[in-house]
Specification:
This protein is an all-alpha fold and about 130 residues long. It has one domain. It contains 5 helices and no strands. Helix 1 runs antiparallel to helix 4.
């Protein structure tokens, strides 16, 4: 939990928005700087499913940084998102059918790239 909600947000926040983003904003317009940091932030997660969520989270965090020029709101936003993902994963599948092969991020209340795949019968328990 400490790694997920404290260490990762601090590390990724200071790498992407504390070091990289200011350098890019000095050279490029905000949309281009945010796009590059989003790509790097997504790839830092090394997991295709997390990369999808990290893209959207990174875009929002990049926008927050571009508006505030402070890394702390970004770290806090990342920590809250990671903490909610962890708590959601503890709750299990709200439909009452647990799928141990699903990633915790897939249980969050927004659409995932796997939601349509897992709604097929191949992902459901057979009778």
């Amino acid at each position: 939990m400490l790694l997920l909600t404290v260490i990762a947000p601090l590390t990724e926040g200071f790498v992407c928005r504390g070091r990289l983003m200011p350098a890019l904003l000095d050279r490029w317009r905000p949309s281009r700087a945010i796009a590059l940091t989003v790509l790097i932030f997504g790839l830092m997660h090394l997991n295709p499913w997390q990369c999808f969520y990290a893209f959207y989270l990174g875009a929002w965090l990049g926008w927050v940084y571009a508006r505030t020029r402070s890394v702390w709101p970004c770290v806090a936003g990342h920590a809250v998102n990671s903490g909610l993902a962890w708590l959601t994963s503890l709750a299990g599948d709200p439909s009452g059918t647990d799928h141990p092969d699903l990633e915790p991020m897939e249980l969050l209340p927004w659409p995932s790239p796997t939601s349509s795949w897992c709604s097929r019968s191949s992902c459901r328990d057979s009778p």
